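FIELD: query
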Amino acid sequence: MTRPPSKASPAVREAALLKILLIRLRLIGDVVLTTPLIRALRRAYPAARLTYLVEPQAAPVVDANPHLDTVIVAPLLSGLARWRADAALAVRVRRDRYDVVIDLHGGPRSSWLALATGAPVRIGYTVSGRSWMYTRRVARPRGHRDRHSVRNQWDLIEALLPGAPPPDPASDPVEMPALASAALRLDARLRGHGIEATHELIVIHVGAGNPFRRWPESSFADVAAALSATQPNRRIILTTGPAQTLHAETVKRLATSLGAAPERLVIMCDLELAELRSLANRAALFIGGDSGPAHIASAGPVPMVVLYGPTTPAVWGPWRDPALVTEALGIGSLACRPCHQRVCEPGDFRCLRHIGAVEVVAAANRALARDRSRTHASVRT
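FIELD: result
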């Protein structure tokens, strides 16, 4: 087993004394995709102390991770308050005396915090203007590569563990434990909407943080109306963040105008991430774009239909057992795809918005049928 050197001497420390800090800031889905690495580190260093530094919005992803000892939340502030909070955070991580820091992000804030720890082993990507902050640097080629995000981040683990076996989504899937407490809160919410355990749930996440990933509300409405019409016992759960409730309300209104029964369409836009995780476990199907909620759903066995616009499933697809049912939909080859989601060159967001509702409904029905066949086959064996 390869272990990093001690601060006090070039000799290796005992694994029981090893202290490792992982840093991944910003988005929810990005943090979900780091969870296979947490498991790999725990497997390599079963007695080490593993700490994860994350920002508030994604903290619930790792709060209950069974392989972590501590989670540090870096507050999201602005102005002078941000500088004060970061200075206090730098003092804390310096005082904790980590042996190894792995910066899974590479942004200015995360690289500065990695440097602030003073750890003798600091691993990060080769980034212009910041590479000097790390003691071990990993090349990160510019431009698009059809290589999954988990595999790209695994390169950082290999800088600590040379010869580590490559990641396998079957044995090292993404991980976010489903909490019993969240399941109880979710059950109470569902009962408040008249939903019982006998109802079949289809979760459609209709929100998106930017227009590049925002499928039209009318298209979501077409899908919701079509899927709600075929099974009287089916309920369509429309989810999004609280700030985007209007999107869900518009989808429900349009679907109702197409003939969908209003009682079969339920809006739930104030779920905690842990409750969303439990909802995905309870659902028969998840439909949504490439987003944090999709990656949270992928931590469980739910069949999925995922819509890809500026991103591709080769890089951002659900990282889980390939035996689980996943349908990935995209427009195919475009000269401008994938993109950095700053300016839409054609101006019409065609990479995502040209995916048709009929196509999504067909994928949903395929996913449901494939999952039934998979379940029956496992029962027979």
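FIELD: remark
The radius of gyration is 22 Å.
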